[in-house]
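Reminder to self: tokens first, then the designed residues, so the page reads top to bottom the way the pipeline ran.
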């Protein structure tokens, strides 16, 4: 099975040694993605704006892999402050309302205290 490595251009990928996404056959595995705007390396202080940017970053990786958010079958959310998750629901529903993937939310610390949400997805490309 052929593997394709997808990069967002984020300096974190080279520094840590991972890919934004890996394509294996029809499967696309997108790494945990935070709300950094990789073009400017800035991050909003607002969890909802961070969630939106996470999904924009994920969508960009999925497009490079020949997939979309509609192909997502599994999503994991990580938030240091679980009480902030509900504020993100409208953005998540807007992006995942059609796919309605299996999901899990975990409350745990993230690498940088500015990060308020991290999202990881798995997609199965439509045949």
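Designed residues (127 positions):
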């Amino acid at each position: 099975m052929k593997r394709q490595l997808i990069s967002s251009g984020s300096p974190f990928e080279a520094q840590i040694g991972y890919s934004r996404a890996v394509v294996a056959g029809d499967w696309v595995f997108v790494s945990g993605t935070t709300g950094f705007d990789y073009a400017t390396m800035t991050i909003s202080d607002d969890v909802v704006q961070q969630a939106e940017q996470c999904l924009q970053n994920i969508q960009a990786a999925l497009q490079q892999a020949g997939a979309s958010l509609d192909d997502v079958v599994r999503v994991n959310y990580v938030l240091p402050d679980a009480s902030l998750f509900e504020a993100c629901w409208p953005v998540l529903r807007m992006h995942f309302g059609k796919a309605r993937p299996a999901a899990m939310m975990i409350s745990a610390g993230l690498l940088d205290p500015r990060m308020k949400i991290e999202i990881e997805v798995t997609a199965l490309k439509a045949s």
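The chain has a mean pLDDT of 95.
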